[in-house]
Design brief:
CATH topology of the largest domain: Rossmann fold
Strand order of the largest sheet: 6-7-8-3-9-10
CATH architecture of the largest domain: 3-Layer(aba) Sandwich
Shape: globular
Number of domains: 2
Largest sheet: 6 strands, mixed
Number of helices: 9
Bound molecules: adenosine-5'-triphosphate
Helix content: 25-40%
Number of strands: 10
């Protein structure tokens, strides 16, 4: 389980996250939702050590420290917003980059087989340059690259961004399958309906604060939308 306690982070002198405490339980899908600028991506960046933070981050009860590379070795893996695949490299070369952590290098062939099993289209296109893929295929490649790192927790930042509804459905079909296979997932998603349909836990962020943290099956959608759209005042900080 990944746990954050009173996390604060921001950019230079500007603080964005205000005392965020939440958990990503093992084998479950935890979704972070919220409007533009809420701080969702900043949260993932802080978790991955890409920006400095205050507060504690624990993996299976042990404090996580070090630079991004150490965190990846510990099992934190992010699939970034906007895919960020290496366009001038082939699909398979991009996947090979995911196998770089020391702890999973030896299993590279097995993991590649698993990724191709999950994403047959990537197998068909394995020699093709990543820059020639469609948005949906590039999203699958970014997720496949993350899986090549054998994540203890896979942090996926807005996989639906810019994709046609039919492709979003396909991508979320894969996310559901990963969940059913026991992969621990942290998901940022702006589409509340999709997030609710797939998540075990929902955390709503607005202006760098957590406004609501609940099991997904106990959420009242109208209340959620009122908070999301700021039609209802945020509850006082506890
Ligand atoms: P979106 O869905 O639009 O990505 P978000 O909830 O992920 O929104 P963040 O991208 O984390 O929000 O942004 C939170 C705040 O931090 C915003 O006010 C944004 O302008 C600011 N911010 C984000 N990246 C930087 C940066 N590199 N430098 C300075 N400020 C930044």
């Amino acid at each position: 389980m990944l746990e954050l306690r009173s996390l604060r982070a921001g950019y230079g002198r500007i603080n964005v996250l205000w005392d965020i405490s939440l958990a990503f339980p093992k084998g479950e899908l935890t979704a972070i939702i919220g409007p533009n600028g809420a701080g969702k991506t900043t949260l993932f960046r802080a978790l991955m050590g890409l920006i400095p933070h205050q507060g504690e981050i624990l993996l299976d009860g042990k404090p996580l420290k070090g630079r991004t590379w150490d965190l990846i070795e510990a099992g934190l893996v992010m699939v970034p917003e906007g895919r960020m695949v290496f366009k001038d490299m082939s699909v398979e070369e991009n996947l090979a980059l995911g196998a770089y952590p020391r702890r999973c290098r030896a299993d590279r062939a097995r993991n590649l087989g698993r990724v191709y099993d999950l994403f047959p289209r990537l197998k068909e296109r394995r020699a093709q340059l990543a820059g020639s893929l469609s948005g949906g295929e590039a999203q699958m490649l970014a997720m496949g690259r993350g899986l090549m790192s054998e994540p203890a927790i896979l942090l996926i930042d807005e996989p639906s961004l810019g994709l046609a509804p039919v492709i979003v459905k396909e991508v979320f079909g894969i996310i559901r399958r990963l969940k059913s296979e026991g992969v621990t997932i942290g998901l940022i998603e702006q589409n509340t309906h999709i997030a609710l349909s797939v998540a075990d836990h929902i955390h709503l962020m607005r202006s760098g604060k957590l406004l609501l943290s609940r099991p997904a099956d106990t959420i009242d959608l109208d209340h959620l939308h009122d908070l999301y759209l700021a039609r209802e005042a945020a509850p006082p900080a506890s």
